[in-house]
Structures are given as structure tokens and as C-alpha cells.
Amino acid sequence: MKAVDNLPFKIGTLIFIKNRKGQFLMMKRKRNPNKGLWIVIGGKLETHLGESAYECAVRESKEEANFSIQPTDLHLFSVISEKAFGSSEHWLLFLFNCLKPIDHLPDNIEEGEFAFYSREEINTLPIPQTDNQSIWPYFDKYQNAFVAMKIDHSAQGMKFVIEEANPL
């Protein structure tokens, strides 16, 4: 049995929210995973409730950013399967581009502090390696389209494979 066999499998969402100036809402994490790094908001699906990815994105937007949205405010632009993330778990992630702008900077929460950054500024922030190498570049290209990919962390380095891509 390989070290990556029988790891827990988690399902989550990431939500890319912008203000009216086109700046992205980012959260600097205060705890692991990604402690001290800037990320977009998101969270794990409540699978025991049968929660959908859209329901999770709506709930997490409210819980983390006090931002009320509807499923129709979201565009699913990516599905990512991550194998052996952190050598401790597998993930299936649904990435959403929020079409509704946020009109306020959320209050800081236990999980982190918030700020708005331009896309160019995000390139200078400490962000997770996976976000830097795959998530943000694919957001740039597919935010209004769709891409499905897998990322394998079990090999030396990260291996990215595009499984489907539908650009505009």
C-alpha cells in the first residue's frame, strides 16, 4: 500500500470575490492550513447534510465575509482534484467566480484578517504554492469559462494535468 492510499478525502469550495474596483477579497490565515498566507475564502462542504458545492459557497461567503449571495451569483469555473495535499489528505475543490461585487471589507474573524488586493498585488503576496502555480493562473484564463484539473502532490514536486478546458 502506498503512503497516499487511504488518506482522508475532503470536498471544499473557493470563492473569488471582488469589490466594485475589481480588487479581490483575500484573507490572511491565522491557523493551519496555510497559516500566515493570503487566500481566497472558502471551506469544506457539510457532506453529512448533503450540502452542494453551491450551497457551501453561499454559506461560507456569509460565515466568513458576512456577504449574502445566491447560487445565481456564482460561476463555477474550475474543479480541481488534489492528490496527497500536504501528504495528509486528498481534496476535491470547486472554484467559483462570484459575479456580485462585495461592498464592504469584512470584519476580521478567528480564522484570519481581510484585505482587498488587485490581481497584480496578489502576485507579490505570500500565497500557497499551489495557488501561485495553478489556481491563480487558471483563474486568469478561465474565470468566465471552465477548466478541470488534477494536481498530484505525491510525486516529486507537483504534477498538474488539465483534464478538460473550455475557454471562451
Q: What keyword list fits this structure?
A:
single chain; 168 residues; alpha+beta; Nucleoside Triphosphate Pyrophosphohydrolase; 38% strand; globular
Q: Helix content range of the residues, please?
A: 10-25%
Q: Work out the count of structural domains.
A: 1
Number of helical elements? 3
| SSE sequence, one letter per element | EEEEHEEEHHEE
Q: Which regions are unreliable across 5 or more consecutive residues at pLDDT < 50?
A: none
Q: What name does CATH use for the topology?
A: Nucleoside Triphosphate Pyrophosphohydrolase
Largest sheet features: 6 strands, mixed
CATH class: Alpha Beta
Q: Work out the radius of gyration.
A: 15 Å
CATH superfamily descriptor: Nucleoside Triphosphate Pyrophosphohydrolase
Shape: globular
**Overall strand count:** 9
The fraction of residues assigned to DSSP E strands is: 35-45%
- Secondary-structure-based class equals alpha+beta
Q: What is the terminal-to-terminal distance?
A: 42 Å
- Average pLDDT over all residues: 93
CATH architectural designation: Alpha-Beta Complex
